[in-house]
Request: fold
Amino acid sequence: LNFPANNVFNTTPYIALPSGIISDRGDLTIDMWCGMYEAKAWARFFDFGSSGKGADAHNNGNGITSLEFSGLQGGQTTPGFQCTIPNGNTYVLGAAPFPLGTEQHVTLVYSYNQNVIKVYINGTLANSGSPLGTLQTLDDQNVWIGQSQWQDPILNGWISEFRIYEGAFTDADA
Reply:
């Protein structure tokens, strides 16, 4: 799936997966092969949650809950895996800027049961943190690949492979 550079949030293509497929998990791992041509703050590879946009990513509105990965976290120089739930907001940043123009293997782990959030880039643990709550508190009405719950810039990049696993990958699995 390619995301063209000139698209804006109200016209861009995206994939919508069924509602509720994230919040009914105890722990999960998201594994993807992806890349960016341009670093744009907050441009999402994926964003699962709820929004004032309702069920159409092309509407105006701001996010309410969110589990998302950006190649460039706003205000930072690195990628970020972020979770915004009623208990609060937590994010884990990558250790280095996301390389442009080359495909990367990104593995993201959210495990409330093990009290850990992990970001792996190309099989190497980039950073880890602690979740503030269970995935059951995520109101995942919108399970969007290539789109944001907010009116953020659109990803100028691609996703070659995208998988969601129930359970937390170990360091050896990533």
